[in-house]
Each structure stands twice: as C-alpha cells, then as structure tokens.
C-alpha cells in the first residue's frame, strides 16, 4: 500500500480523479508491449493535464525521492514504460492536444500524449505528413520521442530524431526548459533536443514537441522482388539507393515472416509456387512521387534494375495488394506474438553487414535450439527478429550472442525500440564501460537524485536500486 | 614565454618538428576568420598525427591543467578556434586522411583535418556527394563538426548534424570513445554523436568522423526571381516547398548584397534596369534532378509558380551564369569584409518570421547609425547580415538588439557559425540561465577540469578564467 501522504501530495497536484492507486490502477498501466516483462503495479498512476502540473509533480518527486516513470500509450517494446513498485507512473493521456499546425513554417506543435493516428487525421486534410511511422498508429508522440522511434519510412524521412525540432521539458526539481524551435538548424550551444531524444524518460519529462512536417505525396507504388539469397538482396540495396531515387520503404522479409503474414492477413500476392520454392528472401520497395508519370517511370526502372541485380522475379503489386502487404508487415510484431515468439530483437548493423549478421544468426539459432525468423528495414541496416526459445536462460545466451555479433559487425543493440528494462542487461554487458560512465555523468547533470526511469537504460536494475527505494520510503515518512 | 617543461612534454608526444612556440607560431594559427577578434599567440601549437598522440596530449593537458583549443582550417567566423595565451592549440592539419570510402554503406570515414575540397575531389569520380557546403571548401571536416556547419544546401540535405553518423573522440584525460557507426539510426543510449556535434571543441576533441554520402545528381538549374517586397519572398517559400520538390538551394539576397556581389564578380544577370529599380529582394532557387527532362519540367513549374506568387520577373539563368551566381553568393562574407563590414550575424528565426525580423533590423540599423545588409538561407530561416558600424559600443548595442529581436521571433543567435568567443556575450545574456546551467553541468561531465575551449561558448570569458590560468601555471612548475 502506498503511503497516504504520497497519494495526498499527488492528488493535491493533479486532482483526486487523476491519481490511481491500489486496485484502481488499470491493468494496461502495469506494463507495455515488451514480451518478456511481468506487469508491475506502481504506487500510483498520475495523469497531469498541464506542464505546470508536471513541474509540480517533479518538484515533489525529486524532493521526496519518489521514482518516476513516464508513460505514453504503452506501445513500447523494450519495457521503457514499465512501472516500478515504489514509484509513480506519469501518464500523458490527458496531455494529448495539437497546440498548433503552422502551415507557413511546416511545423506542428503537440502535447506528448497525442497519438500518431490523431496527428495524421489532422494533417491529412491539409496535405501535410509527419513522416515517422513506427508501425503502430496508437503510439504517442511522447513515446516516440522517448525511444527515438523509427519504422519503415525512415529510409526516406529519417527517424524521430530527424523530425523533432524542439521540445519543452521538465527537469527533476520542476524546472521547465524549452529547446530548439521552429527551425531546422542552430549552432547556439549544446543540442539539448537531440540529447533528450531517445533518452527513454531518464533525463527529463517532455511536455511539448515541435515536429517538422513534409508535403504528402499523392502517388505511390509497391514492388515485390523475390531473391534466392539474402546476399543478393543486400547487394541490390546500395545500387537501388545510388540511382537518385530514395524509396519510401525498403524492407526485406525472410520466407518465414512472409508466410506468417500472408497467412495471417489472407494476402494473395501472386507469387507462383515454383518461384516461392526457390526464394530465400523478399524485398519490398515502395516508391512515391508527386507526379504519376514519374512514379510509373521510376517503378519500371526499379523493376528492371532489380531483375538485373539478380531477383528471381519482380512483381508490381496492384495498389490495394501493395497497401495490404505494407499493413500486414506493420503487424509483424503481433503476428510473431500470436505465434508464440518469446522475445524480439531490433538490432542495427551497417546495411552491407546484414547477410553476414544473418548468417551468424542462423548458426546461433541452431546452436541454441531456437527458431529465429526476421524482416527488417534493409536500407537502414535495422534487422527485426522474432525469437522462439521458451527457456529463459538459453534465450538469454542466444540474445547475448546475437547482440555481440551485431556489435562485432559494427552495429548497436537497438535500432528503434530502445533499451528499456528488457534489453538493459545485454546493452550494459556489451557497451564500452567508458561510454556508460560518461552517460551516467550526463544523466546526473539532469537528474542528480536519480528519480527518473529507475532500472532502465543505464540505471542499475531495480532489484539493486536500494538507494532510491529506501530514500523514497524515507520521503514518505516525512 | 611558455615554460620549457611544457614544450618538452608536448615535443615528447608529437615530436620536435610538430610543436611551434614563440616566434615560430605561424601568424595564421593566431586567429580564425572572425572579424572582431584580435590575434592571440598561444603558448604552443601542436600538430598530432594520430589518435594516440591526441590522447596523450589530452592526458597531459588535463593533469597539468593546460587550456586546449582545437583548430581545423581556421575558417570559422565566430572565434571558435581563437587561441588563449596560456594554452595550446591542437591543430589537425596533419590528421587529414580519408580512411575509407565505403560504397556499399554510402559512408566515408575521415580524419578531422581533411578539407571539404579534398573530400569532394575524392568523391566526385565515384558519383558520391557529401552534401554540406558551408561555402568555404578549405574548411575542415573537424571544424564543420565543431560548429555544426550549414550552408546553402541545408534546405535539401540538412546541416552537418544530419550528415555525421559517428565520431571517434578523445576526452580530457585521454580516454578514446567511439560513437555511432555506419548506420543512420540507433536507440541504444544517449546520442553522444549529436551532443558533440556543434559543441565547438568544448566537450572533447574529435579524431575521426563517419559521414553519410548521397548520390551526386547530374542535372541542375538556377532560377532568379525579383520581388518588390521581402514579405512576398517569404510567403512564396512555403508554397514552393509545399509542392513536393525540395530545391537544392533557396536563398534571398537584398539589393545591397546583390549589387555588391554582382559588382565584385562582374556577373551579368540580365535583369533590366526597370525591374531592378522596383526590386527589394531576390530569390535564388536551384533545382537538381537525376533526370534532365524532370529538371526542365520542375524549372518551368517553379518559374510559373513564382510568377503567380508575385515575382516581378523570373529568370532561368544559363548554366554558367547560375553557377557563377552561386559562387559569388558563397563569397559574400569576403565581399562584406572587403567593403569594410565590422561584424557579421548569422541568426536563425522561423522562416515565416524573416520579414518581421528584417523590419526590426531596418529600424534598429537606423537607430544605431549603422548600415546592415543581408542575404540568407530563406528555406531555413537563417539570415546573414553584414553590419557596418565602426564604433564597438554602438555595434554591440545593435547586435544585442538584433539577437534579442531574433529570440523574440522564436529564433536563436547562430544558425551555423556557432557562438565561439565573439558571440558569447550576446548568447549568454539572452539564453535561459537554467539552460546555460544545465549545459555547464553537461560540460563538467565531459571536462571536469575545464581545459577544453576556455573563454568560448558557455565557458567564462578568458579574462575571468583565472582558475585554469593559475592552475596551468602551477602545472608548468611541477
């Protein structure tokens, strides 16, 4: 039971109706979408409505040493929004307004609880696009900022980091700062916007986000190419990108993933059995253009190029089939989950290293008695794997080996999901200790008492976080 | 005279031939291109050849508390490479190799002393481009990283921040870290690459840079549009950018700047006297494409659109004239300098605020008895002004007012030149003290003894930096 004084303090800040504790905590607020995390009931869930309330919450939490976890929509895949038992969850679902759509500067200013779907619905009629599509439109912009979310369109438009121009943030202690602005460039001190992006709620709470918008292009076409080897997919990619046309989407899918999503969605792609039998991997290329005639030319040129580059066959999908294939690909996490995947990996390597990394992956899967199937943003080197191995110890060994392989191929643990609570042990074991130490000093520059995001990213796992836990208890007794 | 022990220590690290002191310090190493800074002779200039030497230099400097200033080619405009009298300058001109051009991953790995010209000469035959063109091809990549250099092509390709994927850096004390890699996305801890970018040599010394390359497009065309008011230029820009074609270059020039560069370069642009008399500002649009026919279509469409949007006249320049105009625009700093400009400003505002900011500028110029003329990257809101007012006190008042206006219009002091020693007083006076305090804590996380970049960016001006100066003296006596 949380201390009554804690609850009273929180209620005084956000109002009685916006603090949940005990049995009133909603089940959905006890976890995110990470496959490996057990739900945790926090001391309280609070739902602020204004920056001032967030500031008051962080002033209180910092002085009482109460751990704080930020929560957007809870669609994260690495445990970044996992509560801690002695802490509070600050849930942003009541701070979900679009504050401004500035058509002159091509900018939107939004609150962190806004979802991608809500934003897109507002932008579409005006001809604008916020181009980051991590594949889950119920995700919040605040969560996207926390994890530096990516997705399939990153090959053309970049990830969250490349599309956020500024934030309003609240530091532990309650100080409110504004970084960046409605401009794409500045050389006026350290880039605090970029530092907070991807920091998984461990440096500050973000209460407002300034987003870059792009024109929405009308025309797109989807190509599906079947390849006999993954090496031939990987070697086709630089040639395709070198021609001056940047695809909107450039994905590979192994045959396991393709079979699963085709089955799940009832897709009919028209690939003959004979080709299918010889295929090891598919490449999906989506092109877009403001001009229908250019799109047609580019599609034809890309199809020819793919054939020259060794594709067994290349299909220009009818518009609906193309859209359905992309939609099915976006559900791949849920397909994997439904099939019983025990964990997922979203490691990133230099894109030319994908075949070597996946060759390692195949060996390691056999060695650890696991099934590993995957797809990925092949233009970015971002490989998504579903891992089927129910034994936690064997799975842990396998993942550690996979991440070590990615690192040895010049990559990093996570391309877009983040480290959170669930990939922390791997990341801390593999990353240069001098970098971890530097990041911890940076963390202390923002959050000297260590109240934000305990047990995730570079903070020690919660079981060992006695200092904050004990101190928080002491705070309640004051 | 620097202590002999200091020189002996430096010579032991980089070799006798690579330490200059006293009269042997080259004149060019005593300043950068900032108009307002007086040359300073440092205690020594050292020219390391390897990362190991840089590491040894920073280990020595940190323990002896010797101030360290990094220097690339010295083309900076804000005093970022200005020496301090009791410190050393680490000059990177011997670390100027291309370590790798990786055509599969579209990446180049280079040392910081490499110039943009040298890089471009190596990339051109391979069909690649490193797209950041700050307008001075003798600038070094290391200097570009330090200032987060921009330039005319940023509207299409972004600034240095958007094109650097990773760095090798050396911390005070000598620790060597590697950040990022040959990939465009990662969500694996704080983004140290982005933090070091634009930090003006105050956090770490960068010894290697991994750059993103893009395909070099063959075809380009230059449009020149004359407008009767700056408001009409500014309101044309979002319409032009909203059409789905991103220009390579999008510049405005006021009539003063246009007259100066036309005169200096002997350009003949074919603008009739009658049009010229009615013109308040010119818009220069460069389009590029991989397809000649598309370029022609786009050029025609842009010309029509500009006419609809109120241009007095629109000229499609012959290829040579277009290239000459851009080359002349790139020399605008030197033209201003030759005409006797007393200072320059490169402030950034939301692009829709440019007319209001420039209206303020015109009032402020009159009020302070100054001539202020300008041009800028109108797609990015980055306004470049030459300021003619020889009296330092009046000029300081004027610049402070200009920067305050920029801030009040939602902008920042510098868009791409940086703060250095020369814009420091303005920036510190206008920036939120809570942000400065946070940046100082971040600085301390990297450089606890404050040896890097004394007197610039957020470090107290050198006159007041008694601690380091005194301590450095003490270090020499050991």
What distinguishing features does this structure have?
5-stranded antiparallel β-sheet, 478 residues, alpha+beta, homodimer
Strand neighbour order, sheet with most strands of chain A: 15-12-14-13-17-18-16
* Sheet/helix structural class of chain A: alpha+beta
The radius of gyration of chain A is: 23 Å
Which assembly state applies to the chains in this document? homodimer
Terminal CA distance of chain A reads 17 Å
What does the average pLDDT of chain A come to?
A: 93
Can you tell me the overall shape of chain A? globular
Uncertain stretches of chain A? 464-478
Strand percent estimate of chain A: 15-25%
The interface involving the most residues is between: A-B, 85 and 85 residues
- H/I helix tally of chain A: 17
Number of strands of chain A: 18
